[in-house]
């Protein structure tokens, strides 16, 4: 368990960065811009298609790439918890009202809920879309050195978003590390043992309050240190990002062509091609 | 130099050496918004190419004074002159160009996503082009022996590495004066020695004047040209390491303890029942002084 890890179901920023800096596989040598173009194309494809088969194939493809990049698959499935809960909490309600062949019904007295085949397909498709975007995003974050990622944010995002991001990232690490230390201190004196939900809730509220106060204090000190080096409201990321090579352009072109073909030739909805 | 006792009620501190003075703190006081007094009638100066240590217990006002030297704080009363400019009269805007400050906690200073970005931050603020800033950053990292860390993220550096990068971040701006707040606190012995060697090299090779706030009296004894004892927000005595540290009552008054070298020598003399006639400060001085005491009388 890394120092910044709070739960195994929440993506561990520390672990993500460790993988990103490790740079051992082919994917680490691909230009960050190529990977970013891939992200845009993946999002474009899952926005344009509602075909279950296309979504399934794309999910398996990205999962395969993720595994081939030597990234932790078991962790990925643990990290799916939050997006799955998020999607199911939204789509779980919509699925019952979809027209189609009824699969089963639940009689609630005043009204009857019927789940149709289209409702089920909708749930699975949207779930797959969420998992595709999560998997590719994690793959993207875990194969690009952080300095390139931050430099991309600096070049892409307008002010002050880029500034907020550039400064928030390191601050987030420190805050998570601080939270981890406080939680350790709480646990070391028996605070982790569940006496009651009320007691546990109070402890965590206190931890949260302490983290908030310390973060505020820390932010002030960081700001002072920045002013001491001439900070004038603008911070520039200095790293140059490697441009895509010929193979990078080929990959982007091929992927874009595949998407165009799928969007034009494959039916928008349905299970089969 | 002779030991100087400061008058805590002085209204004005005249310059000691106008030609060589880079910093002159003239009876400055600072009161924080909560009413606590940071410094009180503080008289202090730094000469060109000098290492000055501010020694005092926690809460004595060392860090408050350091923040005045960079213009982060302005005095409520009195005046602070840096390189001929008064920070009290609105001339503190670009003081950071002359005075670089290395903070006690490196995590407060390293805010950028990468080491290179962080070290380039100061040079870019000085108006350097990106290429020049990178050259300055690399040169500073090489200067502190941390060039291999250039592509690392601050999150994955050890405490000692973070301190070196913090120092490089200030060195890259080529300051005339470098101010270090507890530079060796929380460091392992090897990194402490490395930081100490760097401080001496900055003075010798780059001609940078150094101000160090510390309660590590061993460090102060080894490297200071002048030691200032701080208590209740003001410097109450100053002198060379020998003058200050061979005055146990003064050290006790400052709420500090003697450096190891001094303590060993004085305890040895006391145990042998002989007068402490020498004032060894450095380790080799102590060794030869003890050897001299052990050798049979001629």
Please explain how this structure is put together:
- The complex is a heterodimer of chains A (273) and B (298).
- Chain A contains ten helices and two strands, in the order αααααββααααα.
- Chain A has 273 residues and is mostly helical.
- Chain A folds into two domains: 191 residues, no CATH class; 74 residues.
- A two-stranded antiparallel sheet of chain A has the order 1-2.
- In chain A, helix 8 crosses helix 9.
- The two termini of chain A are 44 Å apart.
- With 298 residues, chain B is of the alpha/beta class.
- Chain B folds into three domains: 171 residues, P-loop containing nucleotide triphosphate hydrolases (Rossmann fold), CATH 3.40.50; 64 residues, no CATH class; 40 residues, no CATH class.
- Chain B is 37% helix and 21% strand.
- Chain B is built from eleven helices and eleven strands.
- In chain B, strands 1-11-10-4-9-8-7 form a seven-stranded mixed β-sheet, sandwiched between helices. A four-stranded antiparallel β-sheet of chain B has the order 3-2-5-6, with helices on one face.
- In chain B, strand 10 and strand 11 form a beta hairpin.
- In chain B, helix 3 packs across helix 4, helix 4 packs across helix 5 and helix 10 runs parallel beside helix 11.
- Chain B is globular and about 65 Å long.
- The model of chain B has no long low-confidence stretch (mean pLDDT 88).
- The chains are: A mainly alpha (273), B alpha/beta (298).
- Chains A and B meet through helix 1, helix 7, helix 8 and helix 9 of A and helix 2, helix 3 and helix 4 of B.
Key features of this structure:
heterodimer; A: 273 residues; mainly alpha; two-stranded antiparallel sheet; globular; B: 298 residues; alpha/beta; Rossmann fold; 3 domains; seven-stranded mixed sheet; four-stranded antiparallel sheet; 11 strands; 21% strand
């Amino acid at each position: 368990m890394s120092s910044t890890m709070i739960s195994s179901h929440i993506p561990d920023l520390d672990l993500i960065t460790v993988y990103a800096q490790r740079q051992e596989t082919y994917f680490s040598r691909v230009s960050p811009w190529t990977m970013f173009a891939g992200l845009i194309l993946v999002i474009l494809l899952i926005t344009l298609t509602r075909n279950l088969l296309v979504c399934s194939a794309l999910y398996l493809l990205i999962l395969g790439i993720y595994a081939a990049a030597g990234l932790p698959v078991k962790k990925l499935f643990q990290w799916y918890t939050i997006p799955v809960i998020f999607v199911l909490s939204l789509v779980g309600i919509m699925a019952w009202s979809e027209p189609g062949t009824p699969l089963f019904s639940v009689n609630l007295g005043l009204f009857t809920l019927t789940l149709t085949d289209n409702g089920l397909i909708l749930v699975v498709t949207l779930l797959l879309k969420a998992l595709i975007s999560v998997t590719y995003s994690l793959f993207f974050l875990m194969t690009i050195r952080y300095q390139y990622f931050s430099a991309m944010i600096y070049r892409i995002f307008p002010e002050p978003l880029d500034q907020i991001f550039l400064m928030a990232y390191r601050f987030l690490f420190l805050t998570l590390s601080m939270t981890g230390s406080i939680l350790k201190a709480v646990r070391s004196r028996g605070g982790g043992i569940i006496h009651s939900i009320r007691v546990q809730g109070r402890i965590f509220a206190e931890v949260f309050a302490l983290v908030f106060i310390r973060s505020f204090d820390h932010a002030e000190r960081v700001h002072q240190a920045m002013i001491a080096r001439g900070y004038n409201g603008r911070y520039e990321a200095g790293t140059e990002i490697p441009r895509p090579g010929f193979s990078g352009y080929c990959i982007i072109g091929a992927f874009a062509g595949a998407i165009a073909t799928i969007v034009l030739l494959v039916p928008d909805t349905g299970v089969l091609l | 130099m002779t030991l100087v006792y400061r008058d805590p009620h002085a209204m004005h501190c005249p310059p000691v050496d106008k030609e060589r003075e880079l910093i002159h703190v003239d009876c400055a006081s600072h009161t924080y918004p909560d009413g606590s007094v940071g410094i009180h009638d503080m008289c202090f100066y730094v000469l060109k190419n000098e290492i000055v240590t501010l020694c005092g217990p926690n809460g004595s006002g060392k860090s408050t004074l350091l923040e005045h030297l960079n213009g982060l704080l302005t005095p409520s009363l009195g005046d602070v002159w840096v390189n001929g400019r008064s920070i009290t009269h609105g001339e503190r805007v670009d003081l950071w160009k002359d005075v670089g400050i290395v903070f006690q906690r490196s995590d407060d200073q390293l805010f950028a996503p990468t080491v290179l970005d962080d070290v380039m931050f100061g040079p870019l603020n000085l108006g350097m082009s990106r290429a020049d800033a990178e050259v300055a950053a690399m040169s500073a990292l090489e200067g502190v022996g941390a060039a291999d860390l250039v592509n690392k993220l601050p999150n994955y550096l050890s405490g000692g590495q973070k301190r070196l990068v913090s120092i490089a971040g200030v060195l890259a701006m080529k300051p005339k004066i470098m101010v270090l707040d507890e530079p060796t606190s929380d460091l392992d012995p090897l990194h402490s020695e490395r930081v100490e060697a760097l401080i001496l090299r900055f003075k010798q090779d780059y001609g940078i004047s150094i101000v160090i706030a510390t309660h590590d009296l061993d460090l102060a004894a080894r490297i200071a040209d002048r030691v200032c004892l701080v208590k209740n927000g003001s410097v109450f005595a100053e002198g060379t390491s020998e003058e200050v540290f061979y005055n146990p009552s003064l050290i006790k008054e400052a709420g500090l303890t003697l450096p190891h070298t001094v303590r060993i020598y004085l305890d040895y003399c006391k145990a042998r029942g002989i007068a402490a006639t020498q004032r060894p400060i450095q380790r080799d001085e102590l060794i030869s002084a003890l050897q001299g005491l052990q050798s049979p009388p001629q």
